[in-house]
């Protein structure tokens, strides 16, 4: 028997807007524009031949009939999501993760083998970007960014903290020892174009504000700055989390115990309103366990 059903896109738009109480938040969650959500809601209202929301300036309120409708539609979407997750587990679940390129290169990718060994049935599709969540071209299961920040329709959870300290190669330190911050004037300081004040802030905290180093080298990406430090080109202001492996194996050394500049934590961002699928929940738990291991930036 043929089912009489409205458009799935219209139902998704209604369910998200009703659950979040906002067309804008629904648009952010679904990865579409505010106008697209509004249009889909109107299409559903036309199909039902009844209004779904009472609009009060920028606020939307469900009509009594729409509240009863949501009570049926919401669980139906939950059951559909659960069935899809079960199917994915049985056929190799794909987990979509988006992270900044430097973080992925320096921290996440070197640890992914441990996750895959523990959960071989979950396929991680890792994409790199530094865009805001609202600008991503398609929805992601987990987005990793600095924070915690407020993104509509998403919940943030910190999992990895870090600080910034001067670091260099052990070979460079052997050639030109650093016994006090003032000794930096005989070295090359490595700078990152997007973080121009890191050295100024650290030197001020160390009590040698205005120190002029023998030379400086500026690079446009942070991973290039760290690579220059590894290659002995100079001394970088490195984030402890992204240097944890290099420090542990002795490829980099921190000549000074402090001061340590505070930095933003790394956070996971997942869509609000529904519990994450099993694959996402396992990945989130794994990230937090890795972030709490000794030497990970704390």
TrEMBL record:
One GO biological process term: DNA-templated transcription
Superkingdom classification of source: Bacteria
One annotated GO molecular function: sequence-specific DNA binding
Domain named HTH lysR-type: residues: 6-63
PANTHER family to which the protein is assigned, alphabetical: HTH-TYPE TRANSCRIPTIONAL REGULATOR, HTH-TYPE TRANSCRIPTIONAL REGULATOR TRPI
Similarity-based family: Belongs to the LysR transcriptional regulatory family.
Entries under SUPFAM superfamilies matching the protein: Periplasmic binding protein-like II, Winged helix' DNA-binding domain
Pfam families tied to this protein: HTH_1, LysR_substrate
CDD domains given in the database record: PBP2_GcdR_TrpI_HvrB_AmpR_like
Keywords annotated in UniProt: DNA-binding, Transcription, Transcription regulation
Name of the protein in its database record: LysR family transcriptional regulator
